[in-house]
Design goal:
InterPro entries: DUF6904 (IPR054199). The protein is of the alpha+beta class. 54% of the residues lie in helices and 10% in strands. The chain has nine helices and four strands. It has a four-stranded antiparallel beta sheet. Helix 1 packs antiparallel against helix 2, helix 4 runs antiparallel to helix 5 and helix 6 (156-166) runs parallel beside helix 8.
Amino acid sequence: MLRAVNTPHRLGIEVSGDAEDLQMLYQALSELAGDEDEWPQLEEARIRILAVCYDLRHALQGHRDVEAYDNGLTPEMMRAWGRLGPRENVRFAFKILYPEALFVTAALNDFLFIYTGPHGEAITSREHADQMDLNIVYGRYFQTLVLRCAEEITSKSGFKRLRKALNTKFPWTYQYFSQYLDYLDEEFVRKRPERRGVILPTLVERMTSKGPEYQEMVNAIRAFADEHGCEPESVRFRDEIDWEHLEW
């Protein structure tokens, strides 16, 4: 069973499950993200979803966190069955920063909208696909896991604002400048642990509304790209965060 818990310092979420759980989530997110050239205007958001897939793949390879847990199999059960079996199972886990988790949660609204329509129809006239499709189920499950964790560290009114901000309309990730998400990542990491839950609703509102702060950054990136003869997506900001040694 997939599960998610807040990290001790509220920096993000730890997602865990057995090998089958993570493989199913990996498959679902990969399918929902689609092919590289399918929706080029959503490519920056697609890359962030694939970053979760990257962590899932490495978690399955044992490159992240691994823990053993009691599976409930008792000696009495083994005697009754007449055979031995392991008394522990293994869970694989990975951590994801809160801004990244919340961005992917919101971005999945766009990709689920695309996925649920039959191919060849106009996007405005798509009919909903079978909601029992496991890719849809696991995509929604991931969104739910993130929301449950956020609810634990925000106030009731703050969580209501957060939910409203995450209720995005297609296609809110259209040509999204993900450098703004990098900026929010760094800002969030610099906050004191006790403040992180407090600022989450405002952070999500800033992320999804693409307000004046976001537009100012977009203009600055475009101006820099024009001046240096490069593509806007190749422009990155310097930071001083030691990303390899975060206190989760």
